[in-house]
Amino acid sequence: MSAWGLLRLRQQLEHGLPLTTRPWQTLAEQTGLTEQEVMTAVDQWQAQGLIKRLGLVVRHRTLGYTANAMVVWDVPDRWVTSVGEAIAGAPFVTLCYQRPRRLPDWPYNLFCMIHGVDRNRVLSQIDSLIADKHLQDFPHTVLFSTKAYRQRGGRYVSHD
Amino acid sequence: MSATIERPCREAQQPGFTDLEKAVINRLQHGLPLVASPYLAVAEELGISEQALLDTLEKLLEERVFTRFGPMFNAGEMGGGLTLAAMRVAEWDFDRVASQVNAFEEVAHNYRREHELNMWFVLATETGEGIAEVIEQIEARTGYPVYNMPKEEEFHVRLHFSV
C-alpha cells in the first residue's frame, strides 16, 4: 500500500465516512487504493488504537444532554486504578482518566465526566455512584460547565 | 478568591426525534461493522431499507445532530500532544482571557466551570513537545499560570447517549 494513499485515506476519513452504499469503495476511488486495502488499513488502525471507534460522533448537547459535569476525586495512588475502573463502569460516566495532582491548589487525581439531561439528575447519579462503589472516603468535587466557549468538531478525540 | 456563581441550569429538552432517528442514533453509537456494505448490514439489523438509513444519516448530519460520521482518531496514538489544562481567571477578566485562549488553533474545547479553576480547555498539538510551547505562549499572552493535567491512565467507558 502506498504511504501517500494511506495519508490521503486518513485525511478523507477525518471528514467522515461517505454515505454511499459502498463507502470503502468510494474512499478507494478518492485515494487510489483498492477497496480491500482501505478496509485492511482501517482494520489495522482500529487494532493499533489509532481509530478508537467507528460510528457516530455525537454532539451531546443536541441530543438534550446539557448538564455537563466533571467530577474529580482525590484517591490514594495505590487505589486509583481500581477506583477508576469502578467509576468507568457506571453507565452514565462518559470519560474517566487519571491525571496528575497540582498541589497545593489541586489535590484531585481521578477525573470523570457525566453528561446528563439535567443538573439534579446528575447530582443524584453521583450520589448513587458514591454509594454503589463505596467512595465515601475519597474527597470529591463537582465542576458543572456553565458555558462552552469553543467546541471544535474535528479530527481529535472528543473530550466532552 | 472563590468566584463560583451558582446558576440555575436550564431544564434540558430532548429534541423531538422520530422513532427511526432514535433507533439510528442509538445503534450507530455502537459502531459500524467493517464490511463492504456496512450501511446495508445495519439497516437489515434495524429492519429498514439501506436508503432509509442513509437518508436519516444525511438529515441528522445536515441538522448537525452529530458532527461527523466515521472514525474517531486518537490524537495521542497519532503521535501528537493532547492535554487538559485549567486556569484560575479573575471574573472581571474572564472574557478577555477566553478570547485570547480561543485564538490559539490548538485549543479544541474551552469550558467555563464552577470552581476557582474556572477555565478548562483541551489542547491538541501535532507533536508531543507542542503542548509545553503552547502553554508557555498562553501564560505569556494572558498573564495567568496554566495548570497542565495530561492523561496518565484512561479507564474504559461505554460511551453512549441514548435518545
Task: Tell me what you see in this structure.
- The complex is a heterodimer of chains A (160) and B (163).
- In chain A, strands 3-4-2-5 form a 4-stranded antiparallel β-sheet.
- Chain A is built from 5 helices and 5 strands, in the order αααββαββαβ.
- In chain A, helix 1 crosses helix 2.
- Helices cover 36% and strands 25% of the residues of chain A.
- By secondary structure, chain B is an alpha+beta fold.
- Chain B has a 4-stranded antiparallel β-sheet.
- Chain B is elongated, with a radius of gyration of 20 Å.
- At the A-B interface, helix 1, helix 2, helix 3, strand 1 and strand 2 of A face helix 2, helix 3, strand 1, strand 2 and helix 4 of B.
- Strand 3 (93-98) of chain A pairs antiparallel with strand 6 (153-154) of chain B.
List the main descriptive attributes of the protein structure presented here.
heterodimer, A: 36% helix, 25% strand, B: 163 residues, alpha+beta, 33% helix, elongated
Task: Sum this structure up briefly.
The complex is a heterodimer of chains A (160) and B (163). Chain A is an alpha+beta fold. Chain A contains 5 helices and 5 strands, in the order H-H-H-E-E-H-E-E-H-E.
